[in-house]
Write a structure and sequence with these properties.
By secondary structure, the chain is an alpha/beta fold. It has 14 helices and 10 strands. A 5-stranded mixed beta sheet has the order 2-1-3-10-4, with helices on both faces. Strands 7-6-8-5-9 form a 5-stranded mixed beta sheet, with helices on both faces.
Length: 301
């Protein structure tokens, strides 16, 4: 396959989040899996929550990994984000202080993150358990702040992701929901997205990125601790054992075909949180044609 990206004079700018669900892209970057496929890439640094979506919106990044609900929130844009592949499954949770219960959260303060799948998860968990409007929801700025707030009693519960889930549970936090109770066993956390214009005009770039991530996923499956060791610098303060525990809870899944319903079914909650009417979900938010090409190419590589 000839990649149009191979002839570019400027590197392809990628963007990503910070969760363990970005592992296939992290490893593809750190193990230098793009160059053998003829693609020169630059990964923009993570500046905090919102920076990934911001770079994709303003055009400074063409492709990237981000929380799966971003394609739903961005659906009415003139050049919307499109889900083109997966990255990581599950690995989100509502955690409470030691001994906490969901029913015991009535009147309590719960922390989450605005414009993030964790906010959507919390909304669906509260609604499912009849707690909608019965807790005080406060938006947080960092995963460290969530951990500190939970342990210091500022919050009775918080939403968080791996590897923070494994870390906090190891310190006694109570798992109130891991998302599977409301979203099923195969919900995505992070996915690979691109602007519709990029999907339409530069599909070869997307295919090549997905191929590198598929190769990284195979490496993770074959040698998980070696893969985690290669990207451990991205998770300062976490031990290899903690990252390994996190990987169990948040496994990679680049080939997301057949699992798109878990993504699209969150549409009503995303619309409700944005104060918008529950219009029909657009049919163009998922496009796995590049994914199918990448899987086929790797099968014959």
């Amino acid at each position: 396959m000839h990649s149009t990206a191979a002839t570019m004079t400027q590197p392809l700018t990628l963007t990503h989040g910070g969760a363990l669900s970005n592992l296939p892209l992290f490893l593809a970057l750190d193990a230098e899996l793009f160059a053998p496929l003829g693609l020169d890439v630059f990964a923009a640094p993570l500046d905090g929550f919102g920076s990934t979506a911001g770079r994709l919106r303003d055009g400074t990044a063409a492709i990237g990994t981000t929380g799966f609900t971003q394609v739903l929130a961005d659906a009415t844009s003139h050049d919307p984000l499109v889900a083109v592949a997966g990255s990581g499954l599950r690995g989100m949770a509502v955690l409470g202080r030691r001994g906490a219960t969901l029913k015991g959260l009535v009147g309590a303060t719960v922390g989450t993150f605005a414009d993030d799948p964790m906010q959507v998860l919390l909304a669906d968990v509260l609604a499912h358990h009849g707690l909608d409007g019965r807790v005080h929801v406060r938006m947080m700025r960092s995963l460290q702040a969530a951990a500190d707030g939970l342990e210091q009693g500022e919050f009775q519960a918080v939403t968080t992701i791996e590897p923070w889930i494994s870390l906090l549970r190891g310190r006694g936090a109570t798992l109130l929901s891991d998302g599977t109770d409301v979203w099923g066993p195969d919900y995505p956390d992070t996915i690979l997205v691109a602007r519709r214009s990029v999907v339409d005009t530069a599909p070869d770039q997307i295919v090549t990125v997905i191929r590198a991530m598929l190769r990284a996923e195979r490496m993770i499956g074959d040698h998980p601790r070696s893969a985690l060791r290669a990207v451990a610098h991205r998770f300062p303060g976490f031990s290899l054992d903690q990252l390994s525990a996190g990987l169990v809870g948040q496994p990679p899944c680049v080939d997301l075909r057949g699992k798109q319903a878990a993504l699209l079914d969150r549409w009503p909650t995303v619309r409700r949180l944005a104060g918008l009417p529950p219009d029909p979900v657009p049919s163009t938010l998922v496009d796995f044609r590049c994914l199918a090409r990448a899987v086929e190419a790797e099968a014959y590589a």
